[in-house]
């Protein structure tokens, strides 16, 4: 079962959703399908400039003041920690453009471990407060994904992968993806948001059952939580 995941590495619900999806597959036990996961770029804030801005400052401008900002960060942190993820919004997180981080993900998918790269980038931002536009942060994440430091630095200094990442961003628009995380199953079914593991297991089970049904029954959808793309 092919799983195409559109996400952004500064989206807290993408990190939460990633782990909930993995738990949902695990809940299926022996009935779990073999999943072939592919990560794709999505930018929540494509207009973020090259200079980092304190996250709380950016949130105050976006959501309208300190009280709302602290409410959002507190609730998100509590949810993440309940999933076993070390969210810590007191580590000096910054608003930064994620294009270079997505390029690193593209490289890791071809020459390293994209799963490890994603995890390293999420952890760097949400648990360590590191700037995901900083080359040193990207090098550290890339080496955790099995990439060579010299290769990463040369890659970041080039335009390699830029067009391909642009194609991923364009494909998200073509598919009508406007929020992340978005999980596209076998190019046909869309699961949006950080769904509970039990819901993920149920949806995947119904998709697997539909795919195993006679050809005449194909294309009927899998219920309200999954839809054709």
From TrEMBL:
GO terms for molecular function: oxidoreductase activity. It holds the Pfam family DSBA. It comes from the Bacteria. Residues 3-204 form the DSBA-like thioredoxin domain. This is Polyketide synthase. InterPro entries: DSBA-like_thioredoxin_dom (IPR001853), Thioredoxin-like_sf (IPR036249). Signal peptide: none annotated.
């Amino acid at each position: 079962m092919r799983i195409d995941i559109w996400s952004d590495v500064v989206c807290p619900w993408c990190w939460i959703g990633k782990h909930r999806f993995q738990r949902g597959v695990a809940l299926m036990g022996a009935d779990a399908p073999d999943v072939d996961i592919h990560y794709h770029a999505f930018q929540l804030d494509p207009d973020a400039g090259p200079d980092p801005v304190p996250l709380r400052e950016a949130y105050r401008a976006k959501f309208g003041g300190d009280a709302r900002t602290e409410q959002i960060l507190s609730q998100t942190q509590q949810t993440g920690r309940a999933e076993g993820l070390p969210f810590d919004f007191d580590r000096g997180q910054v608003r930064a453009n994620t294009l270079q981080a997505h390029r690193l993900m593209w490289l890791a998918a071809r020459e390293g471990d994209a799963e490890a790269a994603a995890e390293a980038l999420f952890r760097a931002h949400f648990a360590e407060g590191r700037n995901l536009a900083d080359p040193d942060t990207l090098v550290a994440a890339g080496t955790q994904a099995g990439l060579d430091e010299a290769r990463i630095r040369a890659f970041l200094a080039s335009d390699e992968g830029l067009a391909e990442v642009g194609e991923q961003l364009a494909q998200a628009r073509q598919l009508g993806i406007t929020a992340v995380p978005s999980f596209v199953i076998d190019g046909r079914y869309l699961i949006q948001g950080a769904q509970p593991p039990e819901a993920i297991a149920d949806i995947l089970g119904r998709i697997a059952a539909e795919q195993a049904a006679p050809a005449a029954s194909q294309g009927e959808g899998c219920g309200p939580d999954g839809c054709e793309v």
